[in-house]
Amino acid sequence: MPLTITSRSNPRYRGWVQLRSRRARKRSGEFLIDGPRDSLRAIQSGILPREILCSADCDLDAVAAESELGQVIAWAQANDALTLVASALFPAVCYGQRDSHVVAVASAASSAPLETLSVPQTPLIVILDGIEKPGNVGAIYRTADAVGADAVLLTGTTTDRFNPNAIRSSAGTVFAMPTAIGDHDAVASWLADRKIKVALARVDGECSYWDLPLTEAIAIVFGNEAEGLGTQWERAPHEAFRIPMAGIADSLNVSVSAAVVLFEAKRQRLSNA
């Protein structure tokens, strides 16, 4: 029978609640995954939770075995990783899906070192430079997964991709997408060594995104929500493109911009196949 946590003063419970803060996640190296869908996708991607927390009011015997919740609970039981939490205490551990019954406690996966990141001959790479909002980061991961991008590189960013908002908006794809983190110079050098073209999303780009050839080896760079891309990207060979805007706004939200451009890349690659 799994252990049941019934007291708010329980040290383990207090530790889980603290993982809602970035400082605690950074200090402990752990993070929380809300709900059965994202917990299952983490498990399927090789990020194995240390514990699965389940609300004590969940009738384990009534959960359909083939459901996402059933699969997560079965994995937890098979790995002696299931802990029950009193229903009055469970909401403080959850972030958004408070009727989902489970929260996973996992160790943050390390990003692959740039030099060991393996990509195909003509990769489609997404670079997020200085993007701050976790919801935008997660949404771009979800789009990158949808179009079959080969990797996401994070530069100049302090965003925690295991932030609850990032995980939720990514629909769990943040666990499966190959990811590396590096400073601008290291990333630019890595791209140059592999002859991967760099395309910069800028409001003043020389060409429209639909005129940009996206079937070759390419890395598409999206910048900070407020300030866009810094001038450091202009030091190396690149092509700057824009998304034409017909109204009074000069740009789209960065996650929307990424979706527009990445699906154009997908369209071109399908047409060229």
From TrEMBL:
Gene Ontology terms describing biological process: methylation; RNA processing
Q: Name one GO molecular function term.
A: RNA methyltransferase activity
Q: Which residues form the tRNA/rRNA methyltransferase SpoU type domain?
A: 124-263
**Which Pfam families does the record match to this protein?**
MRM3-like_sub_bind (PF22435), SpoU_methylase (PF00588)
Q: Which domain of life is it from?
A: Bacteria
Q: Give the first-level EC class, as a single word.
A: transferase
**Limits of the MRM3-like substrate binding domain:** 10-62
State the UniProt keywords alphabetically. Methyltransferase, Transferase
Which InterPro entries would you find in this protein's record? Alpha/beta_knot_MTases (IPR029028), MRM3-like_sub_bind (IPR053888), Ribosomal_eL30-like_sf (IPR029064), rRNA_Methyltransferase (IPR051259), SpoU_MeTrfase (IPR001537), tRNA_m1G_MTases_N (IPR029026)
> EC annotation?
2.1.1.208
Family named by the database record: Belongs to the class IV-like SAM-binding methyltransferase superfamily. RNA methyltransferase TrmH family.
Q: Which PANTHER family match?
A: RRNA METHYLTRANSFERASE 3, RRNA METHYLTRANSFERASE 3, MITOCHONDRIAL
Please identify the protein, giving its name as recorded: 23S rRNA (Uridine(2479)-2'-O)-methyltransferase
Record the organism: Rosistilla ulvae
